Amino acid sequence: MIVIENVEKRFGETTVLKRINLTIEPGEVVTILGSSGSGKSTLIRCINGLEALSGGRITVDGNDVSTKAGLATARRRSATVFQLFNLYPHMTALENITLAPINVLKKPRAEAEARARELLKLVGLADLATAYPQRLSGGQRQRVGICRALAMDPRYLLLDEVTSALDPEMTGEVLDILAELARGGTTMLFVTHEVEFARRISSRIVFLEQGELIVDMPTERFFAEDGGFAVPRIRQFLTKMKKD
Amino acid sequence: MNQLWVTLRPHLPFMLDGFLLTVFACTLAIIGAVLIGALMASLRTSGNRIVRGVAFAYSDVFRNTPFIVQLFFFFYGLPEIGIYIGAFETGVIALSIIGGAFVSDVIRSGILAVDQGVIEAAKVSGLSRWTIFTKIVLPIALRTSVRPMGSVLINMVLTSSILSTITINELTGTAKIVASTTFKPFEVYLVLLVLYASLTYALSLLINTVHRRLNRAMDTGGAA
Fold first, then answer.
1. How far is B132 from chain A (nearest CA, A)?
2. Least packed by Cβ within 10 Å: which of A109, A171, A219, B151?
3. Interface ipTM
4. What is the pLDDT of residue B12?
5. Which of B44, B117, B129 is nearest to A68 (CA)?
6. Residue to substitute from A68, A86, A95, A137, interface B, most B β-carbons within 10 A
7. Chain A contacts of B111, Cβ < 8 Å?
8. Shortest Cα–Cα distance, B125 to chain A (Å)
9. Which of the four pLDDT bands, split at 50, 70 and 90, describes residue B95?
């Protein structure tokens, strides 16, 4: 369980997150919606310890991410997929996927590679194990990024706008895999602009507006006329997204 | 042209020895400089202030003093305090040290230019700082540094001519002797200029090849 309590994040004078409270239970797929600059990505970066909190507390299965030991455990239980893939450019797809399992989980190389090949097959990239990131398309890179995250056997998958840098066709490739994972019961925290997709796979939707969490509802309620849709800001957001 | 050949021919084996000694000394010094440079660059990005300070001081001191003075300091100064090493070894070490100071600058820029996103991905996957540095940051930095390192290494070859001042008969040393015995400095030094130019040209070709090899598969986002 990821528990976010009264979390605040300030960059200098700017407050990016204001007293955020959110709990993610195992098995849930929680989507965070909100316009650019609403603090969605920052929230993910607070969970995986890339940003220090200005206030409040985040625990992953009871491990406080603001402590060194807690963060180490939290990082073992979660894995992050990034908007810009962030693959290691000097390593092949296979090496990208096996680096952390070998060095962090201390898996034997052969076992780590077998698992990596399995994952690559799952995302349809079995033939590209020895390709370097530069040779891959954006969609292929992101699929490798997902494999790299899954290779750590995470309890929680943190997805930070993973399709924002992709064209629609490639977005489709990546979303299909995520839908598959959601059906398989992977716990996910999903920051995205893909509203329709979020509606299909999420159990809950959270809406951030200028650093404040203004709505946290089960997906159906969120899209209902008398639910999230009744909140003017959300109706405006959803209408605009549909037009785009 | 014929006259030049007749004059120089008896001295060519001697000059060839000098040429080979220059190639040998430079090869050793370049290897030394890259090793020292990589180490110092790593220390210069260290979190420890003292370590960082020492590494910065090293690079500043050696980049801002004349090489010939450094060389004399090692060659004439060290024996006075009881450290005796041969002229050739002294020359190679001095050349490695000054080369390393410049190389460390190049590699340090390479380290700082590594994409933060890539480092973040490594951090969140739980890799230790040591593993992140040795398996990700440094390998990427070394690949992007090859080409910018080129001019430093070429400068080392040129600077190696100063080793002739401490009794090493490398290319310039032999040329000096031949010029004074034949009384043909114009011809001898002309040949010398051509030889240095070919040597540095060959080195730049080698650097380009290494650069292409290492970066063939990779888009480092930097100077690749």
1. 10
2. A109
3. 0.92
4. 87
5. B129
6. A86
7. none
8. 6
9. very high
Provide the pLDDT for residue B1. 62
Comparing A133-142, A203-212, B7-16, B40-49, the range with the smallest average pLDDT is B7-16
Candidates 1.10.760.10, 3.40.50.11540, 1.10.3720.10, 3.40.50.2300; correct CATH number of B2-215? 1.10.3720.10
Domains by residue range for chain A, with CATH: 2-243 (3.40.50.300)
Q: What ranges make up the beta strands (E) of chain A? A: 2-11, 14-24, 29-33, 55-60, 63-64, 78-81, 156-160, 187-191, 204-209, 212-218
Cβ distance B218 to A135 less than 8 Å, yes or no, reads no
Measured CA to CA in angstroms, residue A139 lies from A86, A163, B37, B190, B195 at distances of 13, 8, 38, 59, 52
Closest CA–CA distance from residue A236 to any residue of chain B (Å) = 33
| Rounded to 5°, angle at Cα A17 from A13 and A18 | 95
The pTM (predicted TM-score) of the whole model is 0.88
